[in-house]
């Protein structure tokens, strides 16, 4: 299965002509999962190779506008790209995000009279008080749902923190387990961990032939982990005839933060193939960054080191950092300096540092068997 990640917006605070507001797409075999949806994401999407109609799940890290203002418009855009054939049973777009998101969508879609051709459900994560300063917590009146469901809205789940693992289980299916975890920011913010399940290794066909097994349903049963009994009575165990399992990939995408809450998330992110971490300002502005609930390259590097990530991708840059391609001689704020700062902090490790730019597509290759 192919897996890659495309950055649609890598700027913080607002979209600018040279950097879109936060949004990235994780693509697995053509299915697109969108992480954050800043203003202008639909235009960025049209300028990319991705297709809006392929978005099946959306994850919103927190309710700041630079991560959310694009969502109602994007949903309408996806609807335009949807085949209106009434025979077709359209699947529900699942949207995950902090408490308040359900109300935000119901109000914006409702007041604008926006109808969608597909159903959607908002699954809300319950934040805890430790995730932000007191002024960042939303009052009950702000997050309480209001009015009836939007005509295309299906009932979503409310997901609470699992105290034992310090994480939120968003969903699991035969291919993936997706969890969220708590971050500290000016408002409650979350990180997401997409864990692909390990897959069985290839069948040792030569050995199977020697055992007298012909290709067919029995091969499928062995691959699915079942034992098979031959006519002779000999039991063939999957472990005998399967090569080593193919380890699942792990992708961790953190929303805005100045720190991660708890040990559980660090364990969850251990060994990530890709860790996407914000680096809003350079190390020399650490105090300002932390004051605003943000991180520096050095802080992002420390997380990547603790988690033994293979690759650290920096994004969510202050708009003062122009993309390298637009950099002019004498420009003071140089985005490549942010990479240098992270690399310096990871000098004695094997973590690779990547600077995200709008429209960068990062392939996430399969891992070799352990
Ligand atoms: Zn932001
Ligand atoms: Zn923010």
Automatic annotation (TrEMBL):
<dbReference type="InterPro" id="IPR036866">
    <property type="entry name" value="RibonucZ/Hydroxyglut_hydro"/>
</dbReference>
<keyword id="KW-0255">Endonuclease</keyword>
<keyword id="KW-0862">Zinc</keyword>
<keyword id="KW-0378">Hydrolase</keyword>
<keyword id="KW-0540">Nuclease</keyword>
<comment type="subunit">
    <text>Homodimer.</text>
</comment>
<dbReference type="Pfam" id="PF23023">
    <property type="entry name" value="Anti-Pycsar_Apyc1"/>
</dbReference>
<dbReference type="InterPro" id="IPR013471">
    <property type="entry name" value="RNase_Z/BN"/>
</dbReference>
<protein>
    <submittedName>
        <fullName>ElaC ribonuclease Z 1</fullName>
    </submittedName>
</protein>
<dbReference type="GO" id="GO:0046872">
    <property type="term" value="F:metal ion binding"/>
</dbReference>
<dbReference type="GO" id="GO:0005634">
    <property type="term" value="C:nucleus"/>
</dbReference>
<keyword id="KW-0479">Metal-binding</keyword>
<dbReference type="GO" id="GO:0042781">
    <property type="term" value="F:3'-tRNA processing endoribonuclease activity"/>
</dbReference>
<keyword id="KW-0819">tRNA processing</keyword>
